[in-house]
Amino acid sequence: MKFTVVKKGLYYDSVKLMLVTNKLLEIDSIKNIAVVMGTDLNKDTLIRNHLYSEDAEKATKNDLIIAMDTDSLESFESALKIIDSELNSRSNDNSEEEVYLSLNSAIKDYNQSNFCIISVPGEYAAEETENALDKNLNVMLFSDNVSVEDEIRLKKYAVSKNLLLMGPDCGTAHISGVPFCFSNHLRKGVIGLVAASGTGCQEVMTIVDKLGGGISNAIGTGGRDLSEKVGGIMTKYALQLLERDSDTKVIGLISKPPSEQVKLELMTFIEDNLTKPVIFHFVGNDELIENQKIELATSLEEEAHLLVKKAYPSLATKSLHSELKENQKLLHYDVIGLFTGGTLAYETLYKLKDKIKDLQSNLKKGFHYESLNLDSGNIILDLGDDFYTRGRAHPMIDPTLRNEMFQSVISKDNKLILLDFVLGYGSNREPHKKIKELLATRSNNSVVLATICGTYKDPQNYEKIRTDLENLGVLVFDSNASMVDYVLSSIK
Hints:
The protein is an alpha/beta fold. 37% of the residues lie in helices and 20% in strands. The protein has 17 helices and 19 strands. The chain has helices at residues 14-24, 40-48, 54-58, 73-87, 103-109, 122-134, 148-160, 198-210, 233-244, 260-273, 300-311, 342-352, 386-389, 400-410, 433-440, 462-471, 480-491, and strands at residues 2-7, 30-37, 64-70, 115-118, 138-141, 165-166, 172-175, 178-181, 188-195, 215-220, 250-255, 278-282, 294-296, 334-339, 360-361, 379-382, 415-422, 447-453, 475-477. It has a seven-stranded mixed β-sheet with strand order 8-7-10-9-11-12-13, sandwiched between helices. A six-stranded parallel β-sheet has the order 15-16-14-17-18-19, with helices on both faces. Strand 11 (250-255), helix 10 (260-273) and strand 12 (278-282) form a beta-alpha-beta unit.
């Protein structure tokens, strides 16, 4: 039986709605459910999941839609009570945290705040961002699906007011010792980072921490900032901030390769405006740069090593590569990469694409999601891609989809399965729980490799996760680059 309820003018954050939806799906009597705001994108999700109705069609982006397929009216009514309780409860009964219905009402109580994190559907994001900038707040814009025209306009406005606009689709930042969204427990130090990518930033930050170094600030810019259209508006402003920051001695820049024109503009900008040494890593580009001020790292791991070497000359930057047994030769194994971190997936694809024939990936143009077959062939998947996160939380928050894919391949023979576990304050507290259960019951010859992106003080307990996985036969690496190098040596 299918039911729809629309609650007019009732807004909730998309991440909270996704988590509530996932919790309700655990109830046996509920066959399918979506608890979403009435945006066009969410309505498309309802159509695909066969939950669309006339009531849902009439809903606006300011309305909450609860669409459900259940066994009975009683189970539907029971589910509504659970949804109401979940949406209106606090995560900690002893919390003194206040809940506000608007930015304006929050500022009345916290008028000394200078930062605002925005996580709303893309249809609302530009308006809310402009409102925050009007009030002289720096913004971390977690939302995606913001038009590039709005991004350019708002970033220019932010810079004109000497404010940061990190995003859209910015998942990681670390400002003056304070972690934002998906970030980690880090040492304070003298290395400043500017990063378009979230997990790329986390990979470098956490390796710096393991090597004994520390981070002054890590400023996210969003994945499109170095595109031809945006032209590095926020990257350039962030570099200037780190140049003026007395706590920063060395600067690292992390991004997918920009266009040649944007790269040249960026080089010129650094030459003209920065005195501090800069180390680049363009993921998927390892060409050398002839410039005394700029170094280019060939991997995220090397970026971290070079930053530590430059910032802390007396600190030995030993290799983090795990001491492993002699490599198995896995010439006839299919490589299956199931990644929650997009930049880690992209780095893996770049390092393997010329070595593995017919390597498929949703990071390549022309990929057909509908024809995906994990039973045969080599494939690298970014499970944080928009296709996989429509109507569900990011896999770093909710790893259910990755767990389901892992379950489908771990039962097969001759699979070399690559996993990442990204730790930190915004991530799932037990990202390996279901994987561990599945590994305990396997009875085939497939091989599992894993990399853990995190620090020893992250809330998930880095060392326990590593020990749990190793006890079940997983080969665990401290960096994604070292895991991929192991794959390359195994398939030669």
